[in-house]
Specification:
single chain; alpha/beta; 2 domains; about 230 residues; 12 helices
Length: about 230
């Protein structure tokens, strides 16, 4: 058996956060339309910025009909909230510890911006320390489901001697599908099946490929991997 690395999504896989996405929260605060909200959302996730002022100026630049001072104020407020709202999903650190103890590699592939990642580092410091690889959208300048992000992760893992790669995430479209295209195996954390009815029907009908595994909750991952002989 070759060396295996497990790449994890962060939000809704290892941690939870606010009830809505950053783009939705900022869109509501600034009363943006859907097109503006999507534009701002892509910017938040792909801008390599580590301070709210840089993000605020960039957001104001794509919203010329909004007061830049108001935009910056809302970005600062959201930045603080995003850092503070992060909570570890029960079992996340224990799972990653088991993988490390079993000799596996660990990586992160996530659509994320800096304040939420800082919150993740504060709430899950061991996972952050143990991660061999980090492919974060705001650092890479591209978001999932871009296959290039997953291909880059596979290439980096190969250089480190890993020849088996798993993607663990809660989204079929953002995690499972592009991971498969890049040659990874997929483990779907299907804790929100009501949001995936159409995809589940497509998988059952054979119009979309099933991932190698699915579990209802993060704590079920250990049992799945034990059955596969990976733990």
């Amino acid at each position: 058996m070759g060396k295996t690395v497990f790449f994890f999504d962060i939000g809704h896989t290892l941690v939870t956060g606010a009830q809505a996405s950053p783009r939705r929260l900022l869109g509501a605060a600034l009363k943006l339309n859907e097109t503006q909200t999507k534009t701002v959302g892509k910017l938040l996730m792909t801008l390599p910025a580590t301070d709210p002022e840089t993000v605020g100026r960039a957001v104001a630049a794509v919203l010329p009909d909004h007061d830049p001072t108001v935009v910056l104020g809302e970005v600062r407020r959201l930045w603080e909230e995003q850092t503070a709202c992060v909570r570890e999903i029960p079992g996340a650190t224990a799972l990653v510890r088991r993988l490390m103890e079993a000799g596996h590699g660990v990586g992160l592939i996530s659509n994320i911006w800096h304040p939420f990642f800082v919150g993740f580092q504060k709430r899950c410091p061991e996972i952050d320390t143990w991660a061999d690889f980090r492919f974060l959208s705001y650092r890479e300048g591209v978001k999932k489901p871009a296959e290039a992000l997953f291909e880059k992760a596979v290439h980096a893992a190969r250089l480190r001697g890993f020849d088996q790669w798993w993607m663990v995430g809660d989204s079929y479209e953002l995690d499972m599908e592009p991971a498969r295209a890049a040659g990874m195996r997929g483990l779907w954390i299907l804790h929100r099946p009501e949001r995936e009815r159409g995809l589940l029907a497509d998988i059952l009908n054979g119009t979309k490929p099933a991932p190698e595994g699915s579990v209802a909750d993060l704590v079920d991952v250990v049992g799945f991997l034990e059955k596969r002989g990976l733990l």
